[in-house]
Amino acid sequence: MREFTWIAGGTGFIFLMTCLGAAMVFFFRQRTGRMMQTLFLGFAAGVMIAAAVFGLLSPAIEEAESRGYAGWLPAAGGCALGALFLFGLDKLIPHLHPAANVQEGLSSSMKRTALLVSAVTLHNIPEGMAVGLSFALAAQHGGDPAMYASAVALALGIGIQNFPEGAAISLPLRQEGMKAGKAFLLGCASGAVEPLFGFAMAFLAGYIAPYMPWLLAFAAGAMLYVVIEELIPEAHLGEHSNIGTLSVMTGFVLMMILDVALG
Predict the structure, then answer these.
(1) Any idea what DSSP says for residue 100?
(2) CB contact set of 8 (below 8 Å; sequence gap of 6+)
(3) CA 42 to CA 88: how far, in whole Å?
(4) Neighbour-count burial of 101, counting CB atoms closer than 10 A to its CB (0-12 exposed, 13-18 middle, 19+ buried)
(5) Averaged over 168-189, what is the pLDDT?
(6) pLDDT tens, 13-40?
(7) What angle do CA 110, 91, 108 make, to 5 degrees?
């Protein structure tokens, strides 16, 4: 029951932050400028890189070595599988990258609105997986306070970067003429996969506990795929590429501080 509460709290928090960001549609009507989008995307990329390394891959290596086998094996193998999983979703699910205005995935007659929401939803899948697995790992270690603190740090960092992400989906929809309430609900809907995949991965971890290192690395690989394939390239479009680089570094350092200070 305690594990359920922690996972619900962690994944619920990152979902709530997405909704709070989407609520900006009630205060601002204009689309965020290109410079702000660069800052948001770069910051999110930095947070996700640090979360993948410090919050997922390092624990995966330590967990594997504590079980008596080489830590690099599940770290590398799980990471590759996670990247392939997101690659497959990227090729199958129709979605639109707003910065480049390019549709990807299978050919579809879906409206632009649905394609935009679909793109952000893909980002949020590995984030929910990461938070759910972090709390599941702490529960498997008898509720180790240090591990719970590390999981809280991971949820806090992802939640912080989810705020501008929620705004980045709702504000463009409002600017295109959609009513504020509907734009807000669609922004929230993009984050609904976070609790869903968080609980799914935690449930899976409970049945295949010996493979926890692989699952942690799997979530890390999925996050890194999103960062490398989309967030960093989009943060370096146009004339503000140096701002994108600095925001990536800012997000990385903040997430690293959170993980070290709270873990």
Answers:
(1) T
(2) 195, 199
(3) 24
(4) exposed
(5) 84
(6) 999 999 999 999 888 765 556 677 788 8
(7) 20
What does 29-64 look like in DSSP terms, one character per residue? -SPPPHHHHHHHHHHHHHHHHHIIIIIIIHHHHHHH
As given in the structure block, the two tokens for residue 171 are: 């504000």
> Which pTM value belongs to this model?
0.87
Cβ-proximal residues to 60 (8 Å cutoff; 6+ apart), any chain = 71, 74, 75, 78, 212, 213, 214, 216, 217, 220
Give the max Cα distance, the chain.
Answer: 58
pLDDT of amino acid 205? 85
Which pLDDT band holds residue 87 (cuts at 50, 70, 90)?
very high
Distance in angstroms (rounded) separating the CA atoms of residues 192 and 199: 12
Separation of alpha carbons 52 and 231, rounded Å: 14
Closest CA to 21 of 189, 201, 203, 225: 189
Strands (E), the chain: 95-97, 102-104
